[in-house]
Design brief:
- With 104 residues, the protein is mainly α.
- It contains 5 helices and no strands.
- Helix 1 runs parallel beside helix 4 and helix 4 runs antiparallel to helix 5.
- The protein is globular.
Length: 104
């Protein structure tokens, strides 16, 4: 269990992450306001916080599902899917280089 969050809360947050919602959208869906919202957004965007790690792991499932659907369409000959797949892979490499060089 993550300190300050119930198992039910974390489970619901992960359910929203799996469908691709951003942390702010998750906060809206969980009807968080005031200091609860601020604390949640601070924790979920802090890479070292366990809540952030859970969110990112769940969100990766969403990304994997999108990648799988895109790859399937590209394999079936969809030219737009093939182009988009290429562009996304190119952007991923650029982002990785930025992280390594500049910590962005």
């Amino acid at each position: 269990m993550i300190k300050g969050y119930t198992e039910d809360f974390v489970s619901r947050m992960k359910d929203f992450a799996v469908i691709g919602l951003s942390p702010a959208q998750v906060a809206e869906r969980l009807e968080l306001g005031g200091t609860d919202r601020t604390s949640f957004l601070k924790d979920v965007t802090n890479d070292d916080h366990p809540l952030s790690k859970e969110f990112r792991a769940a969100f990766r499932h969403y990304e994997e599902n999108i990648d799988a659907a895109l790859n399937t369409a590209a394999i079936k000959g969809d030219a737009k899917a093939l182009r988009l797949n290429y562009e996304l892979q190119k952007q991923d490499k650029i982002d990785e280089i930025k992280r390594k060089l500049f910590g962005i």
